[in-house]
């Protein structure tokens, strides 16, 4: 039994972790408990040294001193302030008026507002709840199909998962050891393409099933001409300026993601103040929720560090690497299996848990196969986006159910989400087939082939040979002059000759 435990410690730890998660034990404590329990067993079996846990304080302090993670509370706070300041309501009303005359106009407005909220808040819950409260009753009132209306709201809210300044991209960059700015740049184009796919689906539904997505009646379109233009400008300009303040400064290298988040939080406060909606109660709620979410993330990260200390100590990372690199099909086989695994795990785990548990194990394997980690991280982020939309466990579906009218059936919410889950899966396939969607615009890494590097050491002329040439012009030197350093060589040789002559005398 002892020999079996020693030889199979890594898969036993991993299986135990999965069982803990499936029974619903809190993730942070499940990770830490497994790490400590199996660490003690490993020490007892002689597989690990007793000094193993002496590394824990340094690992935990490393989390506390990680500047990148500061962006999480900043972006969360910014999103909550904007969501409670009524920006979503104003945007939906304005863009709804703009697209109202066309079939599916309200659904298109929801998608565009979802993208704008994602680019300013980065918080899925805030986007889904805001649009569920505001747009769902309006869409149902004007005759939209319940499945289409709920699916569009849930899907557009999850754009906050992939569109910068997404929280998951910050965590993904931290876990893969890459720049958050590069992760944001790489995710921008895939997020736009995914948004356009959602738009294409709505337009197709409006074309083939016009009763599902009627146009707004003339009585509901109260703004026209110059009034509509003025409303669009006054409503759209502030969030667009905020997007530039946050993402533009990061993309141009003026600010780090943490500094961009701080500026975004300040900008959100100023916008709420300008709208006269910044109250002490709103500020307290936003700060309270931000503190809870940040604490939740840090606790999971601490638990993950404890777990990985033991798992790496028993060479678990090598076990995972051998398991995945031995798959048939090489790089493509690895990508297919990993994406299927993430898709299935997303039924039970949210993106925080997947990022902290699974990604650190997959990253080194991907790197050993020569896969670009920025592209790999965004590919996983798009796949993890399905975790918010999976019936029956998708968090976006839960958020929507909590604010939807009682007349909306839960099964309608589930069926409405399925087409958008399929679109997200198609997007994963497109990213695998066309990695240029991510790598376009990123700085190219210069790879040096160490086997082809040649180091030429000039031979000394002392005792014969060429090289710099004693007292003679160096070969290839301009104007027949000795190469730099030839004079020093000559001086040393003169001293040696003089010493030799004195000895002979």
Automatic annotation (TrEMBL):
Membrane topology, record value: Multi-pass membrane protein
Keyword Cell inner membrane assigned to the entry: answer is: yes
Which named protein is this?
TRAP transporter large permease protein
Molecular function (GO) terms for this protein are: transmembrane transporter activity
Question: Hey, what's the signal peptide range on this chain?
Answer: none
**Pfam families, from UniProt?**
DctM (PF06808)
Subunit structure, interactors included: The complex comprises the extracytoplasmic solute receptor protein and the two transmembrane proteins.
Q: Which UniProt keywords apply?
A: Cell inner membrane, Cell membrane, Membrane, Transmembrane, Transmembrane helix, Transport
Q: Lineage of the native species?
A: Bacteria, Pseudomonadati, Pseudomonadota, Betaproteobacteria, Candidatus Accumulibacter
What family is this? Belongs to the TRAP transporter large permease family.
| Places the protein is found | Cell inner membrane
- This protein's source sits in the domain of life called Bacteria
Which Gene Ontology cellular-component terms appear in the entry?
plasma membrane
Q: Which organism is it from?
A: Candidatus Accumulibacter appositus
Q: Which residues form the TRAP C4-dicarboxylate transport system permease DctM subunit domain?
A: 14-437
